[in-house]
Batch of 3 targets.
Target 1
Amino acid sequence: MISIKYEDLESAFEFVSAGPMGEHEAYISLDSGEIYWKSDLSDVDELPDDFDTSDRYLAVPHKHELDLGKRLVERFTALKLPDSGDDVRRIFSHKGAYSRFRQLLESKGLLDAWYAFENEQVSRTLREWCAENGIGLVEHGGKEEQRPATGTEEVVIHADDVPWTSGKTGLGRKALIDLPGGPKVRIVRIEAGQIVPRHRHPDANEVMYVLEGELEMNGTTYGPGTCYYKPRGWSYGPLSTRSGVNVLLFFDGDDRFDA
C-alpha cells in the first residue's frame, strides 16, 4: 500500500475542486504515491509519459463527487440555520452563491462555525476515500496515520502518535478514534482560565474521564480518576479549571454540540 502526505492530498483536492468538474485534474500514482496536476486553464500539465497507457493512476475526486459542495451547505443549514432553508435555496439558484452564502453566515455570526464544519467534513471524507482506495496517509509529523476511516477493522493507536489540534471551541484536542457515525475518542486539554460554556451533545451519549489536573463543573471540582457519564442531549457546564486539565472523552455517535 502506498502512503501520501495528507497535506499534499488536501492541496490536490482543493486544486481539482477550484473550478467545474474536469477543468482541473490531479492523479495519484499507485506505484510511487506522487501526485500529478493538470489544468485546462493554464500550462500546468505534469502528467507522466505513460499516463495514457497505464492503469496505475487514481484521479483525485472533485468535491461534488464526494457530496462536499452544495449538499454540504444543505447539511450545515439544517444543523445551524433550520429557519433559513428557503433563503439558502434561493441563494444557490443564482451564480456567486458561495459568496452570498458566506455573507449570510457572517450576518448570523456563523462564519467560523461553517469553516470548522467544512474543514472537519472534508478531512473525514478524504480519509474515508483513502481507506476505500487502499491509500495510507502520513500526517504533518511524518508518521503514517493509524486510524482507519471505517469501523470494519480493529484500531490500535498510541496517543503520543496523534498530534494536538485546535478544536471547534479553541481547546487543544487529540482525536484518537474518529469513525463516521460511530464511536469517537478524544483527549481534550482545557488551559487555566479557559471556559467551556454550557452545552449538550444531541446525537451521542458521552463518557468523560479526568486524566490529569482538576476540572470544575457545576460548582464541583473533579480530580484525576473521576469518570462522569452524560446521556444523549444532557445539558451541562460551564467547564473550567484553575490549573489546566486533560480529559478523555468517549462518544458513541456524532459529537457535534449546541447550546
Note: The first helix runs from residue 6 to 16.
Target 2
Amino acid sequence: MVFRGPVRWTIRRRPATNGDAIINKIDLQLDDPAVQNSAVYEAEQADLNGATADYRPQGQSGAGTADIRRGQNVTFWVDSTSDGYSDLAFRYKDAGAAGVTVNGLSLGGGLDGARGGNWSTRTDRVYLSAGINKVVVTGYGGEVTLDKLTVTPVQAPQPDVATYQAEGGTLTGTAQVSNAYDMVRDNDRGTVVT
C-alpha cells in the first residue's frame, strides 16, 4: 500500500478476540527517492543458509547480525528500480574471511581485515539489473559477523565506464545490424546485432 500525507494506525481488539493480540513487527519504508536514496538490508533478516542470527548487543545497526562460518552464506535479494551502477556497502567485523557474489559473479577481494572486534565497511561499485538481484556473502574460514548491506544507486555518469554499442563494432561471419526489434527501454531506441 502507498499512503500520501499523514497516516494514523489504530490497533484494537475486536469483541470476539480472546486473550492478547501479538504483533510481531510492522515495517514502514519511505518510498521517495528524493528523500531516501539508500536501501538498508539487515543481515539477520536475509536468507541464512547455515549462518546464524545473533541478537547480542554489539553496536550493530539493527536488532542483530548474521554470523557466517566456512561454507555458510547469507543471501540478500536486492531490488533495483533500473539498470545501472550502485554502491554496495557491507558493514562487518571478523575473525575470518568471506567472499561476495552478485548475480553469480564474484567480487574481487572479500570481507576480511576488520580484526580486533571493530566494525569495518567495504564498498564495491557494481552494475545491477532492473528488478531483483542476488547478493551472496559466503564464509571462507573463521567467522565473519555481518551487520548490514547498504545499497546506494549512483546517479552521476561514471567517468571510468565506457559504453560500446554492438552495431559500432566490426561485423564478421553472419552477423548483421538490424532494427527489426523494438528495443525501447529507458527512452533509448536503437539497433541490435543478430
Note: The chain has a mean pLDDT of 79.
Target 3
Amino acid sequence: MIDTAADPAEEQQADELQIVKRPGPFAPDEEAQVIVLIKRGTARNQIARMTGRDGSTITRIAQRAGLSFDRDHLAPIRAARASDLSLRRLAIAQQMADHLEKLVAELHRPLTIRRINTRTGAVEVLKLPQPDPAAKRDLAIAIGILSDKISNVLTTSAPQEGRAAIINLFESLKLTVAAEDAKPAPQIIDQEPSD
C-alpha cells in the first residue's frame, strides 16, 4: 500500500513555495509541491488550473511518485477533508449563534441617548426602555438574516444536528424575549448640568 500522508516537512515546503503559472516543465521544487498537493487529495484538474500545466503532466508526476487520482484511493483523504470542513462549519455556526443571542438581547436592552441642547448647551440624557422602532427594525432584520445563515451552515454540515441546534436556539430565544417583554421599563429623562 502506498503512503499518501504528506510529511510535515513536505507540508511546510508546499505552503512556502509558489508554483509559477507558466508553460514548460516543472522545477524540482515545484514538482515536490505538486506531489504534496496530490497527497492532500487535491484534484488533478484543480492542480492543473493552479499551475497552468496540462492535466496529463500532473498525472505523470503522480505516477512517477507512485500516486494516483483513483477515486477509491482519494476517498479517505476527501472524507477527512469533508469532516474537517464540517467541524469548521459547526464552529462558525456556534460563533454566529453567540452573535445572534447578543442581537436579541440588544433588541430589548434599554437605550440611552445623549444629546446637547443647542440653546442651553446642557447635555440631555434620554433613557428609553428599548430601542426606537427604526433600530428595532434593523435589529430584527439582522436577527432574521443571521438565523437564516445559521440554518444554512448547520444543515449543510450535519442536517439532524443542525436542525436540533436551531430548534434549541429558537426555544431559548423565545424564552428570553418573553422574559424581556414582561419587564416594565419606565421612561426616565435626566438632565445633566453643563459645565
Note: The radius of gyration is 28 Å.
